[in-house]
Amino acid sequence: MPMNRLPESIYVHAEQYFNTKEKCHDWSHVLRVTKLAKYISEREAADNFLVEICALLHDVGDWKFQEELSTKEIVYPWLREIGLNDDEVEEVISIIIDISFKGAQTETKALPIEGKIVQDADRLDAIGAIGIARAFTYGGHVQRPLYNPSESPKTHKTFEEYKKYQSTTINHFYEKLLLLKDRLHTDTAREIAQERHEYMEAFLKQFYKEWEVV
Ligand code: NI
């Protein structure tokens, strides 16, 4: 990317867009992911500006938002406004479209290092204490029960199955959150993930213990 500092206008557009989204994919999520992605990028050989742009826009047009416009239709004017040419715009759009998680057993597409870094940052924000908080926030948003002791943990073979299946928030740890630490691309992200993963395991242990008491 031919620039030294990302123009403010892309932050303004992204903030306006994400401020209207549900609270686990809102502007604060985007800012945490962007901060993490920049931290990882500085420790890996990557284009820091491409990483920052892709992090800011990684959730635009996500299937969960059910937008009328496509990702490209939304971000194209923002990217042209900061001076990117058509090839650079295409590069950003193809990365952000390929980043999002598509179910436990589905293939992860080959991403350039910048996309891998943003995907790592996004996955780190889905685990640990923040990950737990976000999981229950999202569970409340789609009216998932906390837990159902008669249901055994499930994972999904296809993205369609993952989207359709309505389970509990505790099951979401098994279908997604506990799998993420082994799906990271960079050593920097793996280091950060270790503590967050252990924290979730401790949380689940305590959760089951308390559930059995009542
Ligand atoms: Ni995200």
Describe the 3D structure.
This protein has helices at residues 8-18, 27-43, 48-57, 71-81, 86-99, 113-124, 128-141, 159-164, 169-175, 187-213. By secondary structure, the chain is mainly alpha-helical. The longest helix has 27 residues, at 187-213. The chain binds nickel (II) ion. The site of nickel (II) ion (NI) has 6 residues, from helix 2.
Identify the overall geometry: globular
Please, what is the average pLDDT? Answer: 90
| Cα radius of gyration in angstroms | 18 Å
Structural class: mainly alpha
The amount of beta strand, in percent, is: under 5%
Tally of extended strands?
Answer: 0
List low-pLDDT spans: none
Bound molecules: nickel (II) ion
How would you sum up the major sheet?
none
- Report how far the terminal alpha carbons are from each other: 57 Å
Q: Write the H/E string, N to C.
A: HHHHHHHHHH
As a percent range, the share of helical residues equals: 55-70%
By DSSP (H or I, 4+ residues per run), the number of helices equals: 10
